[in-house]
Amino acid sequence: MIHGFAEVGYGSKFLGDERTDKDEFNLLEERLQLKATYRPAKPEWLASRNPEFFYKGDLLVDEHEEKVKYQIREVYGLISPFSWMDVKLGRQILTWGTGDLVFINDVFPKDYESFFIGRDDEYLKVPSDAGKFSFASRWASADLVLIPFFTSDVSITGDRLSFYDNLLGRLVGKESDRLLTEPSFQPNNTQIAGRIYRYFGAYEVASYAFKGYFNQPKGIKNANARELFYPELAIYGASVRGPLPLLGGIASGEVGYLDSLEDRSGKNRLTENAAMKYLVGYERDFPKDLRLGVQYFVEQMLDYDEFKANAQPGDVPRDQFRQLLTLRVTKLFWRQTFEASFFTFYSPTDNDAHFRPRLTWQISDHWKFTAGANIFLGQHDWTEFGQLEDNDNFYTRLRYSF
Amino acid sequence: MKYLGFGLVFASLLSVSGMELRSAYAADTAGGSTVMKEMLLAYYYPRTDAKSEVFMRIVNRQGQTRERRLTMLRLDEADGGKQSYYIYFHEPADVEGMSFLVLKHPGRDDDRWLYLPSIDLVKRIATSDKRTSFAGSDFTYEDVSGRDLDEDDHELLGVESLGEHSTFVVKSTPKRPGEVEFSSRKFWIDKATHLPLKVEHYDLKGTLYKIYETSEIQTLQGTPTITKAVMKDLGSGHETEITIKTISYDVGITPDLFQERLLRRPPTKWIR
Questions:
Q1: Backbone angles phi and psi of B71, in degrees to 5
Q2: Partner residues linked to A239 by β-bridges
Q3: In whole angstroms, how large is the CA radius of gyration of chain A?
Q4: Are the CB atoms for A273 and A303 separated by under 8 Å?
Q5: What are the DSSP E strand ranges found in A316-365?
Q6: A163-201: b or e for each residue (b if 16 or more CB lie within 10 Å)?
Q7: Regarding beta strands B49-59 and A352-362, do their DSSP bridges make them parallel or antiparallel, or are they unpaired?
Q8: Cis bond leading into B267, ω under 30°?
Q9: Which end of chain B has fewer CB atoms within 10 angstroms, the N or the C?
Q10: Is residue B17 one of the residues assigned to a domain?
Q11: What's the angle, vertex CA A72, arms to CA A1 and CA A370, rounded to 5?
Q12: Structural domain tally of chain A?
């Protein structure tokens, strides 16, 4: 069976920022997605190993880029060679960790451009070409992911969203000509991510490890040539999630130590320092389909003294402890066919914020209408959300699923 | 004087009926609970495990329909005790591949997970409110997986015939009113199969607002099974019909299945 959807989306810019390719809008596209699952029932030797083949691809008429694009979102084979093992090979979406739109141990690539211009949440995740090996046992379960082909986050380049270019020291748009150098494709550049998890009663506990690269160009190779690179990174982390006694609802906590392998001392001002990241979250539901979620996130720069000592005039100032709060409010109406949601990021240390109001109306089993906005506020041009201040947008999407 | 006399008569009537009610209540609580317990076992815990293909049709007042097709796996650890559910959505297209895992523990909140395949996300769901609609239907989570017996007082009102069935009539009143949207429910429970044939829901003002009715019972593998039922919301004119397309009992579902792994990796042989 082939399923999928056809969708049109339009997102206009409030402020008419003229730095980017289009002054009026940053989303105008028509998309056709097709997906197919095949679970062979024969031959017996294969069928007994729970085989599954999956394809999902998008044909996108992107009127912002003035291009027609074909993107394979997922294409993989999944099989259980043993009762205690699953192997998933191919292009796949990978997610783990406990955060709600805040990520520590989820090291898999993201598309923040899609996220900020009003595409469906699905497009926040960028697929990885990877092999995933999952092991189950009575004591614990484990996942091992090998990613031979480096895929970075979809970087904000200035064509669609203006941003703060730290090499130029100002907000830039399409004139940004940064050169982003990805790690070459070599066997020893393969990224490895692992997770071991188990349940203690209702509580799920996980530990994570990763060796690979920053997903964002956090290193400057050559400032004059405007060349950035993706430094090597290792992460060690842990998380716990479960019901909160007495109050009810689900509480979670996650930590990660990010070891910046190319600047372990923190002395190199051109490469991101090591960091500790902490996240606590709480979500609960209330009668009448109301759900609230709050999160508190702290990013602690390690070797902060070295950072201060080596910083030069023009470098972006940073806090030792960057804090971020998120709030999610979701309410469903009309037998869960109409959803109003509001997600807020607010950083008291960066003094910036990002608001994501959204209305979704499931008109029928086939038709869905979505309208929302992305609003950015910030005191400074160089903070995560502050740099996007001129990109406020209002978007609508109409989708037909089949 | 006349007025006082009337008042006295009225008061004595009240006290008599109150006494009668109290004694009847004391006597019938046990009977009501027993009947309800048998119903729970027959309805929610038949045999040890089951694999079913379920079809839901949700119709609104304008006659517009929404449809859900899902596969449900169930395994009981003990009759009336711990239970695991796995639900895999086939239709509609935009939720295809979405799945639910529910571990039910009588006496405390269920553990519930939702899997969204398009972002490979296993989401833990808070379950404080069990009265939310299941998948946008007129059935609540509690209707689908059973409400704890201890949540209500059960009063056996008597015996009635409903169509060709002889039934027990039980009134269930929440012990903690205000936590749920109904003030009481009235059950007609088939004496022969212990299955519910009809349930009336009364709102906090005591008005009937929602009716459940069983429209088809089949005996499958020797087990009487409700294969078609309707829940009608009288106020909104909304209704949901559930049809069990196929069901097989004791197919050998094992407890090790009910893990996060099951969500990320659907059990091909059960859902094909």
A1: -105, 135
A2: A206, A254
A3: 22
A4: yes
A5: 321-333, 338-347, 352-362
A6: bbbbbeeebbbeebebeeeebeeeeebbbebebbbbeee
A7: unpaired
A8: no
A9: N
A10: no
A11: 75
A12: 1
Chain A residues with beta carbon closer than 8 angstroms to that of B252:
none
Beta-carbon count within 10 A of A231 CB: 22
Tell me whether residue A23 is in a domain.
no
Contact flag B268-A337 (C-beta cutoff 8 Å) = no
Q: Is A336 on the interface with B (CB under 8 A)?
A: yes
Alpha carbon distance A360, A56 (integer Å): 23
In a domain, B248, yes or no: yes
CATH of the domain at A316: 2.40.160
Best CA proximity match to A212, nearest among A159, A152, A256, A296: A152
Pick the range with the lowest mean pLDDT from A70-74, A235-239, B145-149: B145-149
Q: Which residues contact A180 (CB under 8 A, 6 or more apart)?
A: A152, A155, A217, A228, A229, A230
- Chain A segment 38-57 residues within 8 A of B by beta carbon are 39, 41, 47, 50-52
Q: What is the CATH number of the domain that holds B175?
A: 2.50.20.10
Q: Which residues 6+ apart lie within 8 Å of A161 measured at CB?
A: A20, A26, A113, A116, A117, A388, A391
Residue A67: name the closest of A36, A29, A97, A114 by CA. Answer: A29
How far is residue A261 from each of residues A274, A316, A318, B159, B253, measured CA to CA in Å? 8, 21, 20, 77, 47
This complex has an ipTM of 0.94
State the best of B62, B71, B124 to mutate against chain A, taking most chain A CBs within 10 Å. B124
- Residue B16, in any domain of the structure: no
**Residue A149 lies in domain:** 102-401
Nearest to B67 among A5, A285, A365 (CB): A365
| d(C-alpha B43, C-alpha B46), whole Å | 6
pLDDT in tens, A18-52: 899 998 999 999 999 999 999 998 888 888 899 99
Distance, CA of A397 to chain centre: 21
The half-sphere exposure of A348 on its side-chain side, counting CA atoms within 13 A, is: 7
Q: In whole angstroms, what is the distance from residue A54 CA to residue B71 CA?
A: 19
Residue B171, domain member (yes or no): yes
Residues A11-38 as b/e (b if ≥16 CB within 10 A, e otherwise) read bbbeeebebbebeebbbbbebebbbebe
pLDDT, mean of residues A87-111 = 97
| pLDDT tens-digit series, residues A341-353 | 999 999 999 999 9
> By the CB < 8 Å criterion, does A363 face chain B?
no
pLDDT at A232 over 70: yes
Answer with the residue of higher pLDDT: B135 or B52.
B52
Distances from the Cα of B255 to the Cα of A32, B43, B76, angstroms: 40, 21, 9
Chain B residues with CB within 8 Å of chain A CB: 58, 60, 64, 66-67, 91-94, 96-97, 109, 111, 118-122, 124-129, 131-133, 135-138, 181, 238, 256, 259-261, 264-269, 271-272
Instruction: Give me the domain span that covers residue B232.
Output: 26-271
DSSP A123: G
Strands B196-203 and A170-172: unpaired
Number of domains in chain B: 1
